[in-house]
Design a protein that fits this description.
Oligomer: single chain
Pfam family, one: Inositol_P
Number of domains: 2
CATH class of the largest domain: Alpha Beta
Protein name: 3'(2'),5'-bisphosphate nucleotidase
InterPro entries: Inositol_monophosphatase-like (IPR000760), Inositol_monophosphatase_CS (IPR020550)
Helix content: 25-40%
Strand content: 25-35%
Number of helices: 7
Distance between the termini: 33 Å
Number of strands: 14
Order of helices and strands: HEEHEEHEEEEEEHEHEHEEH
Keywords: Magnesium, Metal-binding
Binding site for Mg(2+): 82, 100, 102-103, 221
Largest sheet: 7 strands, mixed
CATH superfamily of the largest domain: Fructose-1,6-Bisphosphatase, subunit A, domain 1
Length: 282
């Protein structure tokens, strides 16, 4: 389980504060979804911020809105977002908002309903609140540390599937074209959709049994969804089984494996050799 508060602190005060912030954050994410839908399938500007990485007017508008709505300067909140330069001030802050204004920007720009708004709150490096919202279909995932995860108000539970045979695994379409993950997980059924945060939440909801990527991911992709998944009983790690550590100086991770408790280990064991070979050739 996630450890939220350092020993020696008044935990009751922290709990009250988190519940107050949760209501504000939920409304902000819902409003951000409405902003996203004013751009979705409309004409808007988009450009490459780096090779293969696009950003749109909607990303920038939502990023600015969420920063204004969420950050409490008097409380010393930190901020980490895909669309804001990282000045590392967050490393000295106890509370840090981790945001991807549109996760799955390429799908969003293509008019595909496979994108989300992802907002997580970290306290002492641990996720305590997580919101992942797909405004195109209304899927609203949320989690509070120690209180479970929900989809549109209904409790979530990851699956208890143990075997990869017949398991439903969700992966990235573009990555699967180059990795051919089916070669490493024979018998599994692979599905591809957009938005990393969305994929993790769908595993939390039991719509898929597991998720795998060997690509580099960032805190803003996963901070909210990690909490949703773990509060639904799922597990997540790096492809070599190491825990996910958030709000480090370099906020990225070399791949992820996620799933229910039994399947997570099965994916780790089945793909370990191939992943080790890949790392050896990087």
């Amino acid at each position: 389980m996630v450890t939220i508060i350092d020993e020696g602190r008044d935990r009751s005060k922290d709990g009250v504060e988190i519940n107050r912030v949760k209501d504000k954050a939920r409304l902000a994410v819902q409003d951000a979804g409405r902003i996203a839908m004013t751009y979705f399938r409309q004409r808007f500007d988009h450009w490459e911020k780096s090779p293969g990485q696009i950003v749109t007017d909607a990303d920038i508008a939502i990023d600015r809105f969420l920063h204004e709505a969420l950050v409490d300067e008097a409380n010393g909140d930190g901020w980490l977002s895909e669309e804001t330069p990282d000045d590392h001030k967050r490393l000295d802050r106890r509370r840090v908002w981790v945001v991807d204004p549109i996760d799955g920007t390429r799908s969003f720009a293509a008019g595909l309903p496979e994108f989300t708004i992802s907002v997580g709150l970290l306290v002492d490096g641990h996720p305590v609140l997580g919101f992942v919202f797909n405004p195109a279909n209304g899927d609203f995932f949320e989690a509070t540390a120690g209180q479970g995860a929900k989809l549109n108000g209904r409790p979530l539970h990851a699956t208890w599937r143990q075997s990869l045979e017949g398991a439903n695994i969700v992966v990235s379409s573009s990555e699967n074209k180059s990795r051919h993950f089916a070669d490493y997980m024979p018998g599994a059924n692979l599905t591809t959709i957009g938005s990393l945060a969305y994929k993790l939440c769908l595993v939390a909801a039991g719509r898929y049994d597991g998720y795998l990527t060997w690509r580099r991911t960032h805190d803003w992709d996963i901070a909210a969804a990690v909490l949703v998944l773990e509060e639904a009983g799922g597990l997540i790690s790096t492809p070599d089984g190491q825990p996910i550590l958030l709000n480090r100086a370099e906020p990225w991770h070399e791949g992820l494996i996620a799933g229910g408790p039994a399947l997570h280990q099965a994916v780790l064991d089945t793909t370990a050799k191939a992943y080790g070979h890949l790392r050896g050739h990087r």
